[in-house]
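mind reviewing this fold:
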Amino acid sequence: MALIKENELIPETLLEVAKKMVVAARTAPKARGLSTLETAILTGRDIQDLARCMHEIGEAENNKIFLRDARNVGESADVVVLLGTSVKALGLAVCGFCGFRDCAHKNEYPEVPCSFNTGDLGIALGSAVAVAMDHRVDNRIMYTLGYAARKLGILGEDVRVIYGVPLSASSKNPFFDRK
C-alpha cells in the first residue's frame, strides 16, 4: 500500500486536468471545421514570469485589475492554460459579421479579428473550463493573463487574442478573491 499525500497529488492532478482542458478546446466545434486555435500549459517559473509581466503592465498602466490578477496568479496558480486564436478570415463570400462586406475586404485589415475566430475561441474556452469544473478544479477565465502572454509572445506572433485560465485546488477559489 502506498501513502500518497495531498501535496504530491494535487500538482500532478492539476496538470492532468489542464491536458484534458486542451483536448476539450481542440475538439470543440470550429467554423467550417478550420482551426485557428493555439494552446499552451504553463507551470512553475513560467507562471511566475507571466505574473511578473502582468504586474509590470499593471504598474505601467496604473491598472489595479492587472495588479490584482498578477497577485492572485503568482500566489495561487499551480497551472495556467492559455488559449488563443490567430486572426484569419475563413474565406466566406457572404458574412459581414466582422463589419466588412466579406472576407476579402476584411483581409485588407489584418489586425481586425474574424468574428468566427473569436467565436470559436469562446466555444473552446467554454469546453475547457467545463472540464475544469467537472473535476472540481478552481479556475477563472482571465483576459489579463492572455494580454501578458501576448506581450511575451508565448503563443506566437500570429496569435492576437488570448485568454488564460489559472488552476488551483484549495478550500476557496483564489481567483474570485476581489480585494
Observations:
- The two ends are 44 Å apart (CA to CA).
- The domain at 29-86+115-170 is CATH 3.40.109.10 (NADH Oxidase).
